[in-house]
Amino acid sequence: MMDKNRTLLALKRDEEIKDLTGYITGLGFDPSVVRDGARAIELAIQEVPSFVIADIDLPVIDAERVFHILRNNPHTSNIPFVFIADSVSDIKGFRTGIDVFLQRPINLDELSARVRQTLSARKSSGPGSRGIEGRLSHMSLADILQILHLNRKEGELRVTSGAKSGSVYIKDGEIYNSALEGTEKEKALFRLLSWDEGKFEFIPKQVTATKKIRSTTGNLLMEGMRQIDEFRKKKDQFPDKDKNLKSKVDSKTLPKGLQPVIYEVMQLVNSYPKVCDVVERSAYPDYEVYSTIVSMLARGILDYGSEEGAAAAVAPQFLTTDQAISIREKILSHYTDMNLNYGKIFLLSTSGPLASDFIKRCKVIPGFSMNTKSSFSQIAIENPLGEISAIKLYGGMDITLFSIPTVRNMGPLWRAFSENLIGVVMLWDEQGADELSELETAKKDILSKKRVPVLPVFYGQAAKGADEQYRKALGLKPDEPMFKMGPSDNNMVFEIFYSLFSSIIKDDYVR
Amino acid sequence: MEIGTNSVFTGKIFPSRFYDSYFVNEYGKLESLRASRYNTCFSIILISVERAGKGTPHDDDRGEGFLRKLASTVADSVRNCDIVGLADDSQILIILPETDYFGSLTAVRKLTRAVDAIGAGAPLSAIVTQATFPKDGRGFGELVGTASKRVALKRESLWEKLGLKDILFWEIMGRLTATAHSGFNNSCFEAGGDRELTEFFIDQLDELIVKEISRGPQKRGVLYFSSKKISQRLPLVKNLNACGAFSTKVFLVGEPEDNVWEIRTATPLLLDDPRLKETFFTFYLNEGSGYALICKENWGATYSCFHTADPYLVEGLITKFQTEYSLQEQLG
Q1: Measured between alpha carbons, how far is A40 from A219 in angstroms, rounded to an integer?
Q2: Nearest one of A334, A277, A282, A324 to A305, comparing CA atoms
Q3: Model ipTM value
Q4: Residue B292: its pLDDT value, please?
């Protein structure tokens, strides 16, 4: 929620920082100071200040871009901006009456007057000012949702409890979607419904989120409350969240036509043995996942595994927030369609099992999830095709791994589905060395349409002289990296992705 | 205003509402600034007239006569708010304010029909392409560049090369599956039986399209999917049900098997055509790309398949299908 006294100063000149900090503090505000655009975005999202004062020429990400990013984020879209520049410049999306433009030298009295004017104007007419606020201890979330449903309201219902914060998007009184940390839809909504303590705030505004929840509000709330009650009753029967699971049967032997959650749990257990990981990564609500695990344990399909795996599964740090923001910015700046918040990496391999193995190794990456929703789950594992997994980056951006065949007659596939392509990973092993020409042809054709970084990854230990042979066959330049993935080299995937991301940030790849 | 903006040449071709390239370019630049300021879109359409062999289209009386007729037809076919003029000696440029990608495709269809009705006749030919702001370029020059590149691509498209626009839909389908294509844009493969690719591969391809739709649910597009029997149990329907709301228009073509009217994510088109029993297809067109898959079933559950990433061929197939089955003409 917005802190009325908090302000953000994004400036690069020391003397300006000193002058303005003192002056703003004197006006009764609590300023935070940052010196670059990336940090300004991060802090603005974390603290939601009452206004931002920004130098137009900020390093890393300039103030205009920071302004656009924050305006596109529903949490920060209402923050007024005070731009400071040496000369007059045209800022796209500048809101007269809300944002302020000041030319150097800065007159501090003018600054104060303009800020006060903006803040008072916002207070009287801001979209959030007519919202509803309260505490969950006084009124439950289910009651609020019913009131909003009956009155056919449109807007965002923000719920905060401690450090956690989630949102429910309502349009025409119907629940369109819900988001809580990495989860969404019913799963997020049912989690929010179980909160007893915390604050809520309804902000009437236009909802642009797509409708991802199909049930009617009445049914949804009934089902949610039922699941919460059942969950509380059966809590002792559910497995401990830190326990490890293992499957006792081959997933191929599962009969067809079972509930989809069973196939998903089975897939997830094979990749993430810990109960909490399975629950967290499944798209189904918590109660359904726990109940499925219990029934699969009772039927002997699953069993408890050894505890060593749990300790080994501790994920190392992957990207800092600053790095993730820079990557996201760079990717978005390559595409004119800013609404598509994802980047695609093509996985070209000489055999299906290689692509499958690479995906399995990627599971050590924080934010990585496998796309297990497939009507042909077993075929999809042995011979993956299309989007098979995704890595969640800061700001809701997904990096999807997209497996595509490399034989020439599959050319239409890589041409038709290369939208938002940001990189190519090529995989081969010694057996597939004869098919390197196919990899190279596919690579060439893909790059002829769109220049993106290419990362060649060899599986195994190459014999002497083979490296050069592979490089030649793939048309790699001497300074281009070639990765080698040993049988137990799980951390190599980090290096591969670091290399890809650093190429994206460093080079100016054009569309 | 029109007196000043019509050059002697354009005035000679078409007396009114047909501007010279200077005016069209200046107007286009202003339009791109306006669209960028108000965060809206607009499109341009480029009609390129070419003469096979050497020379320009207006080298002789016939060429100039054709250009004159073309200019008059185009000016009559567009809306009052559209700007029509010459881009250069052999290209007509139309600026369509407030028009998105699919709107411009509809205009291209309309203009193509109008141009075909005039009948250029060899050695003259006309190609109609489009570009939309901001997807295809941020400035007016960039848009014209994209539309010009598309002229070359469209000329290379199988749709133009094989002259498919003059052939019936099922004849085209037969030709595409019977000829061996092995390019990156158009290709053939065999599936089922003892082949390397199983028949499930075809279903996987359809699933891939659904995943693409669910990844960008706000992106507009059109998907035609034909099957022997349409039912709620089709993998494609199940996958669509799991997608949430999306903007792509999905049509299922074939005979109904169970209560198809309960399918809410797609529109069933109930066609009782024996040809749909042995050849099935998937046509997918969106703002960024196009993909079509045509599979002909042979003896022993084997399939001869043709697939393409050529958006002009996909669009042409969709247009033919809609026209010949008297369906509502819509794209996305």
Answers
A1: 42
A2: A277
A3: 0.83
A4: 95
Neighbours of A312 (CB within 10 A): 9
What is the DSSP code string of A227-267?
HHHHHHHHGGGSPPTT-BEEESS-GGGSPTTS-HHHHHHHH
pLDDT of A372 strictly over 60: no
Mean pLDDT of chain A: 81
pLDDT of amino acid B320: 92
A114 contacts: CB under 8 Å, gap ≥ 6: A82, A100, A102
Fold topology of A321-506: Rossmann fold (3.40.50)
Chain B neighbors of A511, CB-CB under 8 A:
none
Tell me which residues of chain B have a pLDDT lower than 70.
Answer: 1-16, 52-59, 120-123, 331-332
Alpha-carbon distance of A424 to A454, in angstroms, equals: 5
Q: Is residue B330 domain-resident? A: no
Q: Which residues pair with B125 in a beta bridge?
A: B50
Q: The tokens 């299906």 sit on which residue?
A: A352
> For the stretch B32-55, what's the b/e string if a residue is b when 16 or more beta carbons lie within 10 angstroms of its beta carbon?
beebeeeeebbbbbbbbbbbeeee
Contacting residues for A138 by C-beta, under 8 A, at least 6 apart: none
CB-nearest to A386 from B134, B138, B211 is B211
Q: DSSP of B293-328, one letter per residue?
A: EEEEE-TTSEEEEEEE--HHHHHHHHHHHHHHTT--
Task: Break chain A into its structural domains and give their ranges.
Answer: 6-125, 130-233, 238-312, 321-506
Q: What are phi and psi of A222, to 5 degrees?
A: -60, -50
Q: Which residue of A has its CA nearest to B134?
A: A336
Interface touch A340/B216, C-beta < 8 Å: yes
Helix axes A492-506, A352-361, angle to 10 degrees: 90
Q: pLDDT digits over A278-323, tens only?
A: 888 888 888 988 988 888 888 778 888 776 544 444 555 677 777 7
Q: Which residues of B touch A213 (CB under 8 A)?
A: 244
User: Looking at the whole model, is its pTM more than 0.80?
Assistant: no
Instruction: Say whether residue B179 is in contact with chain A using an 8 A CB cutoff.
Output: no
Say if domain A6-125 classifies as CATH 3.40.50.2300.
yes
Closest chain A residue to B33, measured at CA: A92
Cβ of A386 within 8 Å of Cβ of B204? The answer is yes
The answer to whether the Cβ–Cβ distance between A400 and B291 falls below 8 Å is no
B94 shares a domain with B178: no
Nearest partner of A1 among A135, A124, A173, judged by Cα: A135
Could you tell me if B206 and B62 lie in one domain? no
| Rounded Cα gap, residues A63 and A67, in angstroms | 6
Write out the residue range of the structural domain in which residue B261 sits. Answer: 164-324
Q: What pLDDT score does B75 carry?
A: 87
Question: Which CATH number fits the domain that encloses residue B268?
Answer: 3.30.870.10
Contact B135 A400 (CB under 8 A): no
Predicted confidence band of residue A262 (pLDDT cuts 50, 70, 90): confident
Looking at CA atoms only, how far is residue A30 from chain B in angstroms? 35
Euclidean distance between CA atoms B120 and A473, whole angstroms: 49
Residues whose CB falls within 8 Å of the CB of residue B175, separated by 6 or more in sequence, listed in order? B162, B164, B167
> How many C-beta neighbours within 10 Å does residue B241 have?
15
Query: Is B205 an 8 Å CB contact of chain A?
Result: yes
> In this predicted model, what pLDDT tens digit does every residue of A44-100 receive, in sequence order?
888 888 889 999 888 888 898 898 888 887 778 888 898 998 888 778 878 777 888
**Domain end call among B156, B176, B192:** B156
Q: Enumerate chain A positions whose Cβ falls within 8 A of a Cβ in B.
A: 92, 185, 210-214, 336-337, 339-340, 342, 371, 373-376, 379-380, 385-387, 400, 408-419, 445
Q: Which of B156, B191, B219 is the last residue of a domain?
A: B156
